[in-house]
Specification:
The chain is mostly helical. The protein contains 13 helices and 3 strands. Strands 1-3-2 form a 3-stranded antiparallel β-sheet. The radius of gyration is 21 Å and the shape is globular. About 10% of the residues have low confidence.
Amino acid sequence: MTTQPADVPIGELAQRVGISTRTLRHYDAIGLLPPSRTDHAGQRFYDDGAVAVLLRIVALRDLGLGLEAIREMLSRPTSSVDALAEHADLLREQISRLSRQLASVTTTLQSLRSKESIMTERTFDGFDPEVFEQEVTERWGAAAHQQSIAAWNSMSAEEKEAELALSQSLVDAFASADEQGMPPEDPRVQAICRRHVAWLARYTDPTPEYIRNLVPMYADDPRFDATYRGHGAYVRDALLAYVDSGAMGPG
């Protein structure tokens, strides 16, 4: 008697793990996590081994790693001990980052409770427009980098706070759209892209060529991907669709 494999369909797995089916299909498309089997109707199923790999992927994504870095880690001929040691190192890095964030939030909370001003440099701890200086300079020249730095430095503390709120609203909007399974070409997602390009225009001249050159970093660079809460590939696809639609004019 043949035993049916103990696997789960893609929709059920996505719900259990808390990710979208689109993300699972993307992992399959790039060869990061293929399904264990596909039935005659094209439905994807995942066995226990695939689920274990997915859980590791999700854990590494939570640590801020990009998909290429995760692919490289999963492909290594690493022993279980070495894999756990590496994971422990990453967890320690995350704890360090979270401790810094907690200290910043605690300081802000104390200031609010005591009605002191919170508009200090600590308010913007973690936002450093010079972090990507090398990438920006290599791709678009020193002038482009200096333009973005000058725009940020010219803002008042209140303007910087509003700018951070705006950028966070864009991150939240993209993440929500991806988690709801909206295609990148959906008009609602494209409206977010229009706002995102308008935000970029505050710092540089976002031509179609500029956008096409920029957005691959959203998915490929772990720092960008972490900024977009692990939805960097989705933001990239949405913005490329926005450019390809001709909404920005000829490019």
